[in-house]
Amino acid sequence: MEPESEWEAAGSSKPSQSADVHDHGTAFQQNHGVQIYYASRGARSPEELANTAHLLALDRTLRFREYRDPVSFGVHPAATWNQTQFPEYVRRDIDEDLYAVLQPGAFVLLVGDPTSGKSRTAFEAIKSKFPEYLAFRPEDGLEFAECVAFARSRDKVIWLDELDRFLSRPSISTSTLDEALRSGAVLIGTMRADQLDLLSPRHERGHSAEARALVRAARGVTARAHILYIDRQWSDDEVKRASRSKDPRVKDASRYASEYGIAEYLAAGPQLYREWQNAWSPGLHPRGAALVSAAVDLRRAGVREPISKQLLERLHAIYLDKRGGSRLRPESLLDAIHWALEPLHATSSLLIPVGEETYRSFEYLAEAHARDKKDPSLPQEVWDSAVDDFSLEVTHSVGHRAEKAAKYDYASRAYERLASAGISEGSFHLGYISAKRDDLEEAEFWYRKAISQGSLLAKNNLGLVLSRSGREDEASYWFLEAAQEGDGHAMRNLGNYFLVHDQLDEAKELFLSFAQKDSPVAKTVLGRLCIHQDDYRKAEEWLRQAIDEGDNDDAWFFLGVAQEENGDLEAASSSYRQAIRAGNAEAANNLAGVLNQLGEPEEAESLYRERLAQADDKYAAFNLAALLAKNGRANEAEELYRKAIAMGSEYAKNNLALLLEKADRDEEADALFREAAADGDVRAMANLSTRCRKSRDPREALSWINQALASGKPEYYIEMGMVQEALMEPNKAMLWYRRAMDAGQYRGATALGFLYERQGKIKAATRIYAKAAQNGEGHALYHLGQLCLRKRDYEKARTYLVEANKKGEPVSHMLAYLALRDGDPARARELMDSVSYDLTPAYEMVRNMINYDEESTGRRTT
After folding, report:
1. Rounded distance, CA 816 to CA 810, Å?
2. Could you tell me which residues belong to the region Disordered (predicted)?
3. In the structure, what pLDDT confidence band is assigned to residue 259 with cuts at 50, 70 and 90?
4. Burial class of residue 634, CB neighbours in 10 A (0-12, 13-18, 19+)
5. Which of 265, 331, 403, 834 is most buried, most CB within 10 Å of its CB?
């Protein structure tokens, strides 16, 4: 039997049917060629149309802006994401023309293939241009007449999706259509291109007078419309816009735009996926579903080549047997293939024919299957076939997929096949897998083989493996080899090598030569070298050049470092933000640190927490713990320090020990200090020295501070001086304090001044304190103020103490004493109430003086 067409051939011998027969739910009346749509209820009489009670339902229509879901306007639903079935709208090339003709009193008809995006384009245009208009959505010509008769206001949109429904009985009349347009209504409709083609006079020959009259009436309706055509295949500009979408469904669809229309892909994908899943039911299409499953899993394994019918026949049995085999009452193989190949929309089907009995699965299915996390593992037979039965190009892709799925045996098999064929990528990836497993010797073997096969990337990676093996000089040779061939990663690694080994002059000469070849990475490294030499102006010049040439993430980051080191915190925060936008996630730690310095601890905390949520970042955990500890949130800080320790932070043990020490948990603190010192943390060694010195064990203190000094850091000279004082060696202490001063550690000057002061050498002490104060030491100002108070030089004392107070020194009780002397007990009380440091005899003395003043004067200050 031949299939019936929508139009009958001329001279057909089929008996005609009465046009009055209503077959509810049937979409076609076959004696007339034009598509006939029957509403689910019978026709209404003119008397019913005049019934006001019946028309009151129309009064509940909404304004267009109140409609949130375009699916209810005939838009095909896509896969659900963010709780919506409709994806982000992508501007179409036709939008400009549509907006131009879409005016009050106009009828616009969008024509195109199914799933070309007609309804969505119309919906977005109306919602954008006429959001306050009432939206009417009639089902047939009679309801259209109701809308026109009832709502005579100008501000209305009448939505005629699938216009062919309105062109057969009960159809739209041209007189009612004209009345709607005269009222200023906006009419917008959609129609499939094949249905519009059926209205051509060419198709009238051989039909009855009744059928020809119906077609002519339909042409009269469409003749009043501005017809705009919308293509199923998207233009290059449309695809570019789609690829930039924030909606992953649209971005995914844009990858297949050359084969399917994007709207078709979005609409067909979910429907095909449902049909595939439903087909497993007994008596439906279980064998077809098994064939599709085999094709989908080969795609998931990385196979992008067409799959032969024979291979699908062999593999599909695995899936069919797993689901129940013959108990599912599977259809014949021929029926299964026909079902899987049947198009849903223009070109979309579960299996796509590619050549002579070769197929592949519709692309959407594999990704939807992965999202649903159904049967995440692939059968062994699929992996075996993917590795062995396809071209070397496919084998490369299969290796990647197997590696991503942690199927390293299959990945290695795939890469070994490539390596044996002399393809460097195979050897390279075998080296990468070996390095990931910490088998550095095997990684070195494969990377060297990849280099011999012509791989550039392997040179940098070989350098990394040699560096991890402690062979840093050999590593630098391979970094240099790769850098000279333009490998940016190798340049960064070579720059790190020079910085760590303090070979700045050699590095500068080499990277200047790289920079002359227009390498932005080389300019970033030159900027880093300048930071290392404290030349922040030159660093900024190099880094801005690197940014202009495209090295955004690293260059913005180190520009922030240069600005922060130079004290320009506002500029540094801006640069760190730019680095984050460019993809440098680690810059969040630096930005948070700067914001904390700028007095914005809340945003700093938020950034640290956001970074921790994104990755197990030990630096973020450590820095957040330090921030919380500083703000008195000790319990939270302790928890985060412990988390940072578990992540491998080198410094968290020492900081947690300090936190526990402050909470008088001395045994726990001491144990952590010793653990940190055993791990090589010189700060913990210095802190152990301080603990031993304060507990009157200067000999053990000396052993710890000697270990700390082996690091060569001058900040530990001061502690050594204090240990020498505890050992009753004041001359040696003076020597260490002077060494600290010479190294720019002016806390050493304060300690030296205090030693002179205790020896009664007040002039020498004053001179040393003054030098320290000139270099920003607040505690030296404290001592100068105290000395002036003893000499009763109150004005000088006030000057020093006010400056010391600005630097956070505990001098409020001294300033309160001066306020009392000035006869201002209220100010004295205010200063004492602001004190946050521990009680001291001097504090108590001033407090008593204030209380005495209040009792004697009878005044109460606030």
Report:
1. 12
2. 1-23
3. low
4. middle
5. 265
Contacts of 443 (CB under 8 A, 6+ apart): 431, 432, 434, 435, 461, 465
What are the structural domain ranges in the chain?
46-232, 235-390, 413-501, 509-584, 810-862
The two three-digit tokens of residue 7, written as one number: 């139009």
Amino acid making up residue 440: L
Task: State in words which class domain 46-232 has.
Answer: alpha beta
**Which one is the CATH code of 413-501: 1.10.287.3510, 1.25.40.10, 3.40.1280.10, 3.40.1350.10?**
1.25.40.10
Lowest-pLDDT choice from 37-41, 634-638, 647-651, 851-855: 37-41
Side by side, the strands of the sheet bearing 358-361 are 307-308, 358-361, 351-355
| Calpha distance 480→495 (Å, rounded) | 10
Q: Which of 199, 228, 197 is nearest to 215 (CA)?
A: 199
Tokens describing residue 764: 């020498």
CA 242, 248, 250, 254 dihedral sign is positive
Q: Check if the beta carbon of residue 114 is closer than 8 Å to that of residue 196.
A: no
Q: Which two tokens stand for residue 508?
A: 């500068």
pLDDT digits (tens, 9 = 90+) for 390-444: 888 889 889 998 988 889 999 999 999 999 999 999 999 999 999 999 999 999 9
Residue 248: the pLDDT is: 66
CA–CA separation, 644 vs 611, rounded Å?
A: 13
Q: Per 3-state DSSP, what percentage of the chain is helix, strand, and coil (rounded to 5)?
A: 65, 5, 30
3-state SS string for 395-407:
HHHHHHHHHHCCC
Name the CATH topology of 509-584.
1.25.40
Q: Measured between alpha carbons, how far is residue 825 from residues 677, 767, 788, 812, 857 in Å?
A: 51, 34, 22, 13, 10
457 vs 378, 441, 481, CA distance in Å?
31, 18, 11
The proportion of the chain whose per-residue pLDDT surpasses 90, expressed as a percent, equals 41
Give start and end residues of each alpha helix (H) in 679-777.
Answer: 682-694, 698-709, 717-726, 730-742, 747-758, 762-774
Name the β-bridge partners of 135: 157
CA distance 721 to 712: 15
- Residue 227: which H helix or E strand, with range? strand 226-229
- Side chain identity, residue 137: R
Q: Could you tell me whether strands 156-160 and 134-136 are parallel, antiparallel, or unpaired per DSSP bridges? A: parallel
Cis peptide bond N-terminal to 698, omega within 30: no
> DSSP readout, 707-727?
HHHTT--GGGHHHHHHHHHHT
